[in-house]
Each structure stands twice: as structure tokens, then as C-alpha cells.
């Protein structure tokens, strides 16, 4: 018997990829995610390739995964894909401590983030 299959959360013309527990603050990751929102995937990949931000390597890898999911799992045309959504979520924060002068302690927070990229196939306007 078993449970009924859960309906797909995305439309038939969409695919997504999720990268969890990235060791960077959500604020820094969101700066890079904002660069690619709403752009065609070819242009987004080019911008990530030449970006000077360290985290753009992980964002590029996640975008390539979303493109591969669209092509292999959902039979979408790679040339017609656009980045529909690129959003960042907050994950855990590791707390560490550094000794300071006069017996005090300074707290250091090491945040983690989640990244979700959704690509959508759009028809060419003729």
C-alpha cells in the first residue's frame, strides 16, 4: 500500500538545486545570489566565473546542478533556462571564543548558510 506520492512543489517547466551548510554568512552569499537573479543561465554562469567573490565558486556549482537537474530529470531545454529564484537561508552559527586582555573573552560567530536556486524554461519571444 504505502502513502500516496507527494505532488511536485515546482511547475513542470522548473527545476531546482539546494546547497546546504555553506560556510559563509547569509549576507555575503545573498550579494552573489542577487547578481544572478532573473538572468539567463549562460549570462549568470559567465558572471559567476569572473566574479572576485570567494563564494561565487559554490554558487556556480549549485547553478550548474540546477541546470543538470533541468536537463536530465525534467527534459528542459538548457538554452532557454532563466534563473527564476536564488534565495539564501540561515543555517546554524558556530560560536567560538578568543582570549582578550585582562582575563576577558571575545566571542566569534561563524555562520553557515543554505542556498536554493530555481531555474525556469521560458519560450523564445519570436
UniProtKB/TrEMBL annotation:
Domain of life from the UniProt record: Bacteria
Q: Name one GO molecular function term.
A: rRNA binding
Gene Ontology cellular component annotations, sorted alphabetically: cytosolic large ribosomal subunit
Under InterPro entries, the record lists: Ribosomal_uL22, Ribosomal_uL22_bac/chlpt-type, Ribosomal_uL22_bac/org-type, Ribosomal_uL22_CS, Ribosomal_uL22_sf
What keywords are annotated for this sequence in UniProt?
A: Ribonucleoprotein, Ribosomal protein, RNA-binding, rRNA-binding
Q: Name one GO biological process term.
A: translation
The UniProt entry, under SUPFAM superfamilies, shows: Ribosomal protein L22
Check the record and name the Pfam families matching this protein: Ribosomal_L22 (PF00237)
How is the quaternary structure described? Part of the 50S ribosomal subunit.
* PANTHER family on file: CHLOROPLAST 50S RIBOSOMAL PROTEIN L22-RELATED, LARGE RIBOSOMAL SUBUNIT PROTEIN UL22M
Function statement: The globular domain of the protein is located near the polypeptide exit tunnel on the outside of the subunit, while an extended beta-hairpin is found that lines the wall of the exit tunnel in the center of the 70S ribosome.
Q: What is this protein called?
A: Large ribosomal subunit protein uL22
What is the species of this protein? Acuticoccus mangrovi
